[in-house]
Every structure is written in structure tokens, then in C-alpha cells.
Amino acid sequence: MATSIQLFWRDEYGGSAVEYSIILGFIAMVVITGITALGNSVLNRLYTPVVSMFPL
Fold it and tell me: What is the pTM of this model?
């Protein structure tokens, strides 16, 4: 039992998949943040002035 646990801790197979998934998660966070900031910018600069020109 102890040897199987030691082998498990030494095994590096699949470690790169975990690293790639962490990197992918960080990239996804950056992309989502950028899209949100761009969306807010478009809303404030384009959509709001156009909507304010039309009376409700």
C-alpha cells in the first residue's frame, strides 16, 4: 500500500493536462473581463446617447 502511494506521488503523467487547464482558465478570465469592459464601453458611448435622443 505504501509503495503504491509513493508511486502515485512520483507519477507525473497528466500533470501537463492540469497545467494546461489552469492556463486555459486564466485565459478565459482575461477574455471574459475584456469582453465585459468592451461591452460596458460600447453601452456608455454608443447605445445610451442614441436611446436618449428618442423620447419615451
Answer: 0.58
